[in-house]
Amino acid sequence: MSTRRRPAAPRSSSSGMTENEKKILGFVRSKQGMGATKYEITGGTSIQQALVTKATTSLKKSKLIKEVSNKGGKHFLAVEFEPCKELQGGDWYVDGALDVSMIEDLKEICVNILERLKQKVVTLEVICSCFQKASRDEYKLSRDQTKVILDNLVLDNVIMEVKSNRSSEHSALRIGEVCYKLIGKKSGGGEARDGAFASIPCGACPHIGLCTPDGAISPTTCVYYQKWLGI
């Protein structure tokens, strides 16, 4: 007995794509740099998930879409778009991975700025203006990025956040204005500071020996690390 073959899905005569592929490509393009997950594509196009899988595989093979992975799962983007910052995890992620080395470099630079200014207290705006004068573009932080670095140094017990009360060291500041000061040895107080590694979650994590960039335990997926970074 002969086996009846299932008819092939109709293809667009203009592009060689099936109607499902055209519909999915249009939907993914509409999302631009944010892209869309398979679940979002299914809901946004009303195409069954099995057919979405088949169509996205074909579109990837044709190099019309690409797949980007982040902590929220896999997103499909049209090839003409680059992943937006939200998809990559924010300012502190590169290709979906937390750039720990860059964060530590920026924290060290921030401490050096505070030491070099030789002021009792320094405002966020002053520190941000110093970062803006950096010779390397990746070190030219915005106000919000500078605040994240300062908040981490506060958590590290390296600096202290205080509010001006118009005392001698705050005489040039408005009452209640937020500012920062070094604490520990480098502030002149003689108090030893904890090492940076000891103050981050990794320093006390019992699973650090199992932590790898692509493993089940990794900095990319560590909720404690993300909470510590304020992201």
From TrEMBL:
It is found in: Nucleus. SUPFAM superfamilies: Winged helix' DNA-binding domain (SSF46785). Signal peptide: none annotated. Residues 1-20 are annotated as: Disordered. It comes from the Eukaryota. Keywords: DNA-directed RNA polymerase, Nucleus, Transcription. GO terms for biological process: transcription by RNA polymerase III. One of its GO terms (cellular component) is RNA polymerase III complex. It holds the Pfam family RNA_pol_Rpc34. Belongs to the eukaryotic RPC34/RPC39 RNA polymerase subunit family. This is DNA-directed RNA polymerase III subunit RPC6. It comes from Brassica carinata.
